[in-house]
Amino acid sequence: MFERMREDIQGVFHRDPAARNAFEVLTCYPGLHAIWIHRLSHWLWGFGWKWLARMSSNLGRWLTGIEIHPGAKVGRRFFIDHGMGIVIGETAEIGDDVTLYHGVTLGGTSWNKGKRHPTLEDGVIVGAGAKILGPFTVGAGAKIGSNAVVTREVPPGATAVGIPGRVIVKSSDEQEAKRKAIAEKIGFDAYGVSEDMPDPVARAIGQLLDHVQAVEERLEGMCGALKALGSDYCAKELPELREEDFVEVKSDAGDARS
Fold first, then answer.
1. Contact criterion met (CB below 8 Å) for 56 and 40
2. What's the mean pLDDT in 36-52?
3. Fewer CB within 10 Å, N- or C-terminus of the chain?
4. What is the Cβ-side half-sphere exposure of residue 149, based on CA atoms within 13 angstroms?
């Protein structure tokens, strides 16, 4: 038991830079208190003492503002930051190293008995105000954006945002490297292209960089074919892109970041 408590405290230090010392964490973190009360209520629930389990869970809600049904299964190093307004349903399952922010709901969409709440695999992060509703799985390492309403499965490592929740497909590392190389070549930092957040301008710039890369590869292939036929047409240099032409764009990108 004490080993698990030590893990919980260390988990706070790893994920909250505001934590200063163990005494402060022990006394001032309602998310931690809610988890410990839930472990007691879940133990009572497992032994069939349902009313006592619900009563201890209700006491935890009064004290912390966090409602975790005693039937919910919670993994190791579960971290609730701020916590007020969190609701976790009876058949919810939470893996290890999961992080929830305030106002999150792990709820159901049916009154039928059985599995009706979501499963969060290891390392999932759920932003403030998000609602995850239904008996599906959010894959390991996935992120749910603030205020998103997710009603379908989220693949491992993906990011889901919006209402209704939609999965943002992250580019492969190879594609990101190509985009970065093209951006550096033309002297422009395509802000946000490699970030997880789905900035529509960054996404459009990323697609343009992909297009430029494809055009360059096609031109190189054509030049190679012409050279093999004895033509020197492709020996001409492409017009130079001057960095000063992009200074204003870079400045606007920096302002957008801040």
1. yes
2. 92
3. C
4. 4
Which residue ranges form the domains of the chain, and what is each CATH number? Answer: 2-168 (2.160.10.10), 173-257 (no CATH)
Burial readout 48-85 (b: 16 or more C-beta within 10 A, e: otherwise): eeeeebbebbeebeeebbbbbbbbbebeebbbbbbbee
Residue 155 exposure: Cα atoms within 13 Å on the Cβ side? 6
Which band of pLDDT confidence, cut at 50, 70 and 90, is reported for residue 66? Answer: very high
**DSSP string for residues in the chain:** -HHHHHHHHHHHHHH-TT---HHHHHHH-HHHHHHHHHHHHHHHHHTT-HHHHHHHHHHHHHHHS-EE-TT-EE-TT-EESS-TT-EE-TT-EE-TT-EE-TT-EEE-S--SSS--S-EE-TT-EE-TT-EEESS-EE-TT-EE-TT-EE-S-B-TT-EEETTTTEEEPPPPHHHHHHHHHHHHHTT---TTTTSSS--HHHHHHHHHHHHHHHHHHHHHHHHHHHHHTT--GGGSPPPP--GGGGHHHHHHHHHHH-
Q: What is the pTM of this model?
A: 0.63
pLDDT of residue 182: 58
CA distance 176 to 154: 22
Looking at residue 158, what is its pLDDT? 86
* Structure-model confidence comparison of residues 17 and 116, the more confident one: 116
User: Is the confidence at residue 171, as pLDDT, over 60?
Assistant: no
Instruction: Determine contact, residues 168/151, Cβ cutoff 8 Å.
Output: no
pLDDT tens profile 80-129: 988 889 999 999 999 998 999 999 999 988 888 889 999 999 989 999 99
What is the average pLDDT value for the chain, to the nearest integer? 79
